[in-house]
Model the fold of this input.
Amino acid sequence: FQSVYPIYLLDILDKRFEIGRKMYNSVLSIVYKRYKFMIETRKYRELKEKVKELYNLKDKQNQKELKETYKILNEMYKEYRLNEYSLHADIKDMQNHFKENIDAFTAQKIATRVWKAIEDLLFGYGEIVHFKKYGELDSLEGKSNKTGIRFKDDTLLWNGLKISVKIDYSNPYEYQAMQDEICYCRIKRKFVRGKYKYYLQLILKGIPPMKINKDG
Done:
């Protein structure tokens, strides 16, 4: 959108991305504290050690015991509110404070991104979490094309914001793709030559059309 639209529209997008970044960091801080409390308990340490001992054993009885241990761990996660549903609840009050800029569904997707970071800690895919520094949030997205961030009549609609989107309908690939139903929209941004450029991604249902080989 950068080179075409009035600067005030870009200022609104900049503001919303910064609010989104702060919401992400706030929820991450809340849930990371819960995680730290949990892993410092004796019960959790003993369960993790038990999982480690049982994991590579092939005996059926050991596998049954491993399954039961995982079940107890999952109950601990619920007890410490370490699940995606709890993060959606955590971000709800924040979203209400920023409702003129961030809608409820976009806020939930922010919470989902936080949950994926915490999942990596819980299930051993990572050892630390990363808070996002200023400018590091590179995308915001909705959950459907019915509310929140929406695309209709070649226009991005989002909490009073209306921005025309350029689509090359003379391009057969783009034309065919746009015949499919839109699942949800994602706004991405890149820092190019000292300023942000924004792009709208449409996540579509169905099978992507075949690209035409112009050299063929």
